[in-house]
Each structure stands twice: as structure tokens, then as C-alpha cells.
Amino acid sequence: MSASGGTKAIVAALAANLAIAASKFVAFLFSGSSSMLAEAVHSLADSGNQGLLLLGGKRAQREATPQHPFGYGRERYIYAFLVSIVLFSVGGMFALYEGYEKIKHPHPIEAWYWPVGVLVFAIIAESFSFRTAIKESNELRGNQSWKEFVRRAKAPELPVVLLEDFGALIGLVLALGGVGLALLTGDGVWDGIGTLCIGVLLIAIALVLAAETKSLLLGESAGIEDVKKIEDAIVDGETVTRLIHMRTLHLGPEELLVAAKVAVAHDETATQVARAIDAAEERIRAAVPIARVIYLEPDIYSEQRAAADAAKAETKDA
């Protein structure tokens, strides 16, 4: 996986979640807190998710084959989508079940210092992981807001880790609140309420992740800035006189397909047109290095045909 895939952030999150999961399970065994059990399963699910992201990044590096001529770059999207399913089913649904059971059959928390101590440790560890993810993301997001970065990022790993770590921190605060209220009131129902809140939070994050990775799986075009760079690079004003229309598609986070029909001067020879197309491809790759698969179709521009195509497109949209 390339650096832009956020491998450092994934490894940091994996190490933090494994340590946190172990400590939460120990705290649950000594205290009987359902919030601790839900948080332990949450951390275990997150650890599996980071493993899936690393596996997806590794499998995406395989060379193209005759059966898959455009390579395996989209494997990273598939594994990111699997992460959202795991977070929803294992993390969210289990927490809802545990919360319901604890509210229905409440019991006091024993050895309170175990869950409180582990939650404080977990908040510190998750904060370190979250800080690493933020640092890695800041190198890529530029002037984008965090919301725009999560929605527009073509590499799914960093948005996934960011949302997981953010959800984990909020979940820990909810667990600490539930445990604290249960200890103050002596009523274990508060522990169950905290567990339910954790479940709702995890399901909400999983749905956001599923929606974003589904869009990547369906196939997203290049970003606005990259599209503008490609359009500017195609036309040389001599042989290639106009861009008629263009489509772009991400074959993976670091691989872009560009297909365009371009207008060429009508009095140019086939050799001149071929050289102009080759030169245009070189300009595109220089402007947007991830544009690795390029198909340019030369044509003679006709204003009448262009107007007819535009009218047809408007009729179709209507």
C-alpha cells in the first residue's frame, strides 16, 4: 500500500485497539460491566477492521491479468466496505443487544476501579491513534474541510481510520458516563443505557462508511482539480484543437482511467494526428501522474453535431 493509503495510521490504530481490547475484556471479567463488554467487542472489531484494510492494500498491489486487465486497485474499496459491515454487525448490533439485556436485567458494577482505569487508559491510547490519523490525513486533505476529505478521498483507508478512532473516543466517553452514573446511583440500568448509546453510535458510523465506500465501488470520477488539469493538458491549439467530451474513472486510489474524444485539424495526416495524440497523453500524465490508462479518440469537430448531441442530452435529462 502506498503512503497515501495511511499505512502508518492503520498500524497505529491496530496496535492501540489490540491493547485496549485486551484491557477491556479483563475489566469486564472483574466488574461485570456491559459497557465494558460492548467496548471490548468494539475494539476487537476495530482490530479486525484494520487487519482487513492492510489485507486489501496488499491484495490491491497484484499485477493485472488477462482476466482483470485493469488490475486489482479496487480491492481496497471492497475491503473498506467490508469494514463498514463488520462495524455495523459485530460492533453496533452486539452493543444494542448487550444494552437491552443490561436494562432488562440490571446488576451493580463490581470492582469499579477496573472499568474506570481501563477506560482512562483506552482514551489515552485512542487519542494517540487518532492523532496519528489526523497527522497522516493533513498531508493529503489540503484546504478541504474534514467533511469534504471524508467524502472525496479516493483512498478509503484514512477516512475509515479517522471515523473509527473518532467513534471509539466518543464511545469511550459514553461508556465512562454509563459506568460513572451506575456507580453513583447504584443502578446498573445506566450501564445498559451507555451501552445502547455506543451501539447507536457505531451503527451511525458504519452507515456513513458504507455509503462512502459504496460510491467508490460504483466508480468515481477524478476530482475537480484533476479534471481541470487534464482538460488543460489535452489541447495543444495546433493539431488537437478542442476537447469534445471526456470521462474519467478511478480504477483504484492511485490509478485513473481517462477516455476522451478530441477534435483534430482536418488537414493533418494520420502520422501527425498519431504524434499529437501521443504528445497529449504525455501532457496528461505529466499533469496528473495517476492517469495511467488513457484512451484518446480523434475526431473532426462539427458545431451542428455538437449542438444536436447537447440537445439530445438535455432531452434525456428532462
Itemize the secondary structure elements and their pairings.
Layout: H1 7-31, H2 34-59, H3 75-104, H4 113-141, H5 146-152, H6 157-185, H7 189-218, H8 224-234, E1 240-252, E2 255-264, H9 270-287, E3 291-299, H10 303-317
Parallel strand pairs: 2-3
Antiparallel strand pairs: 1-2
Helix pairs in contact: 1-2, 1-4, 1-6, 2-3, 2-6, 2-7, 3-7, 4-6, 6-7, 8-9
* Number of continuous helical runs: 10
Structural class: mainly alpha
Instruction: Report strand order across the widest sheet.
Output: 1-2-3
Give the CA-CA distance, first to last residue: 43 Å
Average pLDDT level: 85
Radius of gyration: 26 Å
Number of strands: 3
Strand content: 5-15%
Order of secondary-structure elements:
HHHHHHHHEEHEH
Q: Could you explain the architecture of this structure?
A:
With 318 residues, the chain is mainly α. It has helices spanning 7-31, 34-59, 75-104, 113-141, 146-152, 157-185, 189-218, 224-234, 270-287, 303-317, and strands at residues 240-252, 255-264, 291-299. The protein has a three-stranded mixed β-sheet with strand order 1-2-3. The mean pLDDT is 85.
